[in-house]
Amino acid sequence: MSNEQLQWWVTNFHLPFEVLGTLAFAFSGLIEAARKKLDIVGMAMVTAVAAFGGGTLRDILLDRSPLFWIANDWWIWTILVICGLAMIFFRARHLEFTERAMQWPDAIGLGVFASGGTMLALQAGTSAIVAVIMGVITSIFGSVLRDIFTNQVPRAFTDHQPYASVAFLGCWVVVFAHWLAWPAALAVAVGALVTVAIRLAVMIFGWRVPSWRV
Amino acid sequence: MSNEQLQWWVTNFHLPFEVLGTLAFAFSGLIEAARKKLDIVGMAMVTAVAAFGGGTLRDILLDRSPLFWIANDWWIWTILVICGLAMIFFRARHLEFTERAMQWPDAIGLGVFASGGTMLALQAGTSAIVAVIMGVITSIFGSVLRDIFTNQVPRAFTDHQPYASVAFLGCWVVVFAHWLAWPAALAVAVGALVTVAIRLAVMIFGWRVPSWRV
Amino acid sequence: MSNEQLQWWVTNFHLPFEVLGTLAFAFSGLIEAARKKLDIVGMAMVTAVAAFGGGTLRDILLDRSPLFWIANDWWIWTILVICGLAMIFFRARHLEFTERAMQWPDAIGLGVFASGGTMLALQAGTSAIVAVIMGVITSIFGSVLRDIFTNQVPRAFTDHQPYASVAFLGCWVVVFAHWLAWPAALAVAVGALVTVAIRLAVMIFGWRVPSWRV
What we know:
The first copy, chain A, is mainly alpha-helical.
């Protein structure tokens, strides 16, 4: 398989996972909005923030313009359609079930956005540590902003189950692959795969991050 | 009346309403600062955030530079003078009265900023839906950031009285007028008028947005 | 002493104070993270936000790119090392002692960042009042964002002990020195000195800002 073919496969293989991850993040916003009994506007905003907040903050910090959801506005329509459907079909008794069902897609989102964000930063010419931080920001700040908008201490900061720290590890895989001069799409795919695999292991085996002894 | 004359009239007709709307937003910040017993610094910051937060976020998201209040710094002086006067003259017994008195100017602010933000985005070349979202952000994120800074769930997200959704409708009017190739100032004026009219109807007749049945 | 020599002395004299101030801000984040029992990720994020939040917001508002911590990524390593050491050595019984010990470096941070932020804005060509606001934002928004991220009303807004208002005064000193065409480094040093001196006086004599009579 030539390099171009590889690139093509990995790129197109990437999109469904990105969509799946975004949906998982969006649903996490939707669930929080329902818990806090927000109205339709709050629901749409918190859903959008959960889905796009991380990537938006990354783009602002890197001074990338236009923002990805301004350049690809079908993302906005997707959120609006999800909110409309949720208004019609979503009920209190679905909340817990949805949250459980979203754990796996959420792990995929974590991997895809952490790796993708790292690569975007590397391609913008940042140093390794900045790229890793950008990857972590891309993958977790949707949930951080979601929690700030609903007036809670961000769960990503208190969870004690490795989440952002898993993304942190996966981002270094991308940096390492980039340093080995692998094609970008492959580096992202491998980084995402490692992140998802570790995150699933964390969920299955119940690993914990070291605690403060404060 | 020629096109230039029309443009001139609508533009100059616009400014007093913009000032009135900004004052209403600023006072909403002032009131919240008084409720939370912030000191003079908190008062100035929350007042400024309530007045300028929406436009600032819009400019950052659209990568417009310099920000409108950096380019027109008399806005800052206005806020500082308001805060100074409030320190001297404002008392607890004025809170409720001020809040009621500000409902009408606030509706004007909603219309003016929603329409103006939409037009700015359209002129920056965004698609229709992005322009509408920018209009909504311009008009409501001052109040959203005000509530986040004072540690509350944003009222714009929980109110169940149509506010942002009214702005959303009004923004589409601007997009439609722009598509009809109306002069920008006229499109903004009509969009603002429609928004204000619907918002006043909402307040008078007590309309509600559809509720979650969660 | 020639102008160049003066410049050299003041510039190099500046760095240790900047580092000291950043450390004080970082520790304020660390302490808050410990109080709220955040995990290691939350600790790193809140520490980083407290240390860099003000300068980052200033750079975004002024559309300066790249951000200072993207251009100088050893800042990030410093934060990570601090968090690592804190995980190992920091205990609950150290909290109060650390907070008291940090009051003086914190005053230095206030002065250095307020003056530095003002000068950066002036050099970017803003007007005097915008430069002063940027100085205040640089010096206090680390703590504001720290408190928002840990779900509290920002202490800088409720403290009634002059903090941001002291920075506000010091920023005007920088503007005045700049207007007198003093060399930038000297203007910053004098502005910082005035700010630190007033802040220490505030702490020693227990001065208060005027209260709301609401």
